[in-house]
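Hi there,

I know you've been waiting on this one. I reran it after we fixed the sequence typo, so this is the corrected version. Both the input and the resulting structure follow.
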Amino acid sequence: MAKRRLLKNTGLTLALGVFAMAAGAAPPTQVKAPLPAQKETPAPVERAIVEIPGGSGGLRFDDLQYSSVLGKVLLPAGKTGDLDLVDPHTLAVTAISGFSTGSAGKHRWGEGTTSVDEGAGLLFASDRTSRTVKVIDPASRKIVASAPLASGPDYVRFVAPTREIWVTEPGAEQIEIFRLPEGPAPVPVHEAVISIPGGPESLVIDSKRGVAYTNLWKDQTLAVDLRKRTIVSRWSNGCEGSRGLALDAADGWLFVGCAEGGASVLDVAQGGKVLDHLKAGEGVDIIAYDPALRHLYVPGARSATLSILGVSTTGKLSLLGTFPTEKGCHGVAAVGGKAFVPDPGEGRLLVIRDPYAASH
């Protein structure tokens, strides 16, 4: 038991490496061609590997977030029973325990915690096995409250303007809404459900405009009024299969990941007009956006790649580079010029440094 506790508190194995031609990894794909008189040698790409405590045999990673308040990457670690907080600078891992666990060597979709968000000084995370949404005090690193869900959870998001927790439940084709009472250990109270036939897939909260965005599984993105709890817009998104979402809140651009590969840019101020669409990778699901760099990160689970796309000031996409990951890597979080990509097959976290300057 003492040995296990030590592993949970200090469980970091960091292996820095370089993707080089000699190692068999493909170099980054550069948008700008080299000068005719020169032979360009791509700069080596730094990659770190963070071994997740309890991840041996594989984990079913899904949603992950960066918390600017905590300064940590929030990584729900499935069957381990932990929500892991990863320091983006030191890559140290701190585990918050108390979620459902699974059998060793298995990484089924429905085990443990797979989605998380922050708000009101708390964390909110799903537990697929117990079908609950849990409230975590990050200061004490303890689960302080829990509430049952009507159906299996997918995404969990906090809605600050209404002090609510929204949970997508694709099996029931709905979003379940909970009111969050005041207090240090608030128990979420069921308030309502929003029916989303054909979805919902992914969930992004746009507090500035008072709406939430979610996808249908095929070619449509919806805008949902946060206070009226009704669908107010339906937009064609240019994807055959709609998957992950990311938002540039300042410009009002919504990025949609396409399962067949690539991403679209929608202008929410112009009725969801598609500003651009770019093919990249295969098996795209979760995507992430860094507004400081204006870079969109697009993992391909089938192609085993991470594509980095530049976003211009007019909403146009360009492929800056493509880097190898591992089969099944379908999630990503981005902060400080680093992309954090969970590797479910090995139960670890890949950290890839973005070598490109900010886009214009």
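Quick highlight: Residues 1-43, 104-108 have pLDDT under 50 and may be disordered.

Best,
R. S.
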